[in-house]
Fold:
Amino acid sequence: MSFTVISAGPLSSIQDLGRMGYQESGFSPSGAADTDALKALNLLLNNDPGEAAVEMTLLGMTIRFDSECVFAVTGVDDSPVMNGVKLPMYQAVQAHAGDELSFGYAVDGVRTYFGIAGGFDIPVSMGSRSTGMKFSVGGYHGRKLAAGDVISFREIITELPNMALRKMDPPVISQQVTLRVVPGPQNEAFSEESLALFFSRTYQVSDNADRMGIRLNGPRIKAKEGSDIISDATANGAIQIINEGLPIILMQDRQTTGGYAKIACVISADLPLAGQLKPGAEIHFEPITVQKAQSVLRMKEVKYKRTYKKINRRRSIEKSI
Amino acid sequence: MTEDFRIFPVGDSAVTVAFGNEISPELNGRVHALKNAILMSGWTGIRDMNPTYCSLLINYDPLTLTYQVLTRRIRRIMRGLKDVKENSSRIFLLPVCYGGKYGEDLKDVAALAGISEEEVVRRHTAPDYLIYMLGFLPGFSYLGGLDPSLNTPRLKVPRTVIPAGSVGIGGAQTGVYPLDSPGGWRLIGRTPVRPYDPRTEMILYHAGDYIRFFPIDEAEYRRIEKEVEAGTYVCPEERRYV
Structure:
């Protein structure tokens, strides 16, 4: 009831929807960078939407199944191949003991997710299975996966109902995106001209983009009295303006506090898009109200639940999102 | 009447309640009072709260709790909070082995202050330090209350690895490195105590608590270190009444 890692790729780690409740103690939430892909994976596999999966980065793993299971692959297409045969993305697939599955390079984005029906047997640490790599909490022994690791399964599931229905059209992953943001909390630290510049121009993802944050290049935004603030708390998607006047989008492994003014925060519905951006990707920021952002998220959730119920008729997901 | 706090949206899933723009125990006390009041109220949809120097970040589930409802509730709770003060806090007593190989920069801190090493230790162990907030790393505490005579500039070239438990001074701040990490603070000692234990998932202290350091010798350090490793060490604690 397991798979064995033959080669792990540069950064493959166990992630779910993140670890909430410990940010006041300095634990960043961790969690999947592309939560849309993670939730789609779990929809296909009859799992809770937030079940943990392996998040791969740019170059995927090669694994051997030690037992039967049902799995799927979502996120950016990194050309998964099982026993020499190319596999479809966004589709539940049965595997048998001895099958070898290898993932290649991601071309159109950054992160690919691999999960199984029933979930991996990873202990819940502080409320989550996500790997906090900086502080060695959660996931597989608190670290990214390495060759030789054996990941066990929690349940033996060899088949799911409606196997023929368990597929979706993969979403188009773009490197030219509009990210909707709610201005604030420190937008007042910037002049009207600065705000106008920020919202009208295009920013490019720099080479410095990882699970902590995405540094951008583009027009410099000057805070009226410097960008330093008395350190306050950070949030997923918050956009800090550092002293050079350039923005950083804070991601799941961010530090929980920071001393730079935050001009805006990417809305929850759009943040998964940022998790797929490569160096050179182009971003346009569009300001919307918090009310509008919440209605966008509600509509997205209604759509997700509808699809979920269509495929997984016998399972209720009311208690989790 | 104008309110003496402001609520800002942080995206669609968090708000920050800002109480002002200065580092003071009074403002920080209000941050913790609001956090505790929200905890006591048991609102559904609150995911996580992160108190900092002078603001409280509240992460919430927007599918359960809308921005309007949350901000209305915060305003209502704030009205009842006007004169409420926390009447007691915990003080954690952290044993520290000062100087020598545990605190390589103690002699420099003493020289820069123009006092003896013993006097640095006396002044560093005297105050109860308020934990304004935790951040940077799990358990890294931003403490208030360092004796101004001990203010020491950070190292010009930061160390690449500082061992967990190291107690340092950086500018007007002092604190404990909870994990091995790079850093530029001057190291004056080391505590065998760890602010959180991954085995039990227990976190020793929280923002709003106090820390007081007390000096131990190397033999005592080794003894406590063994107890910490075995998971049997209990950090001494006192209560502070305001």
Helices of chain A lie at 35-44, 192-200, 271-274, 290-311. Residues 2-165 of chain A form one domain. The first helix of chain A runs from residue 35 to 44. The two ends of chain A are 27 Å apart (CA to CA).
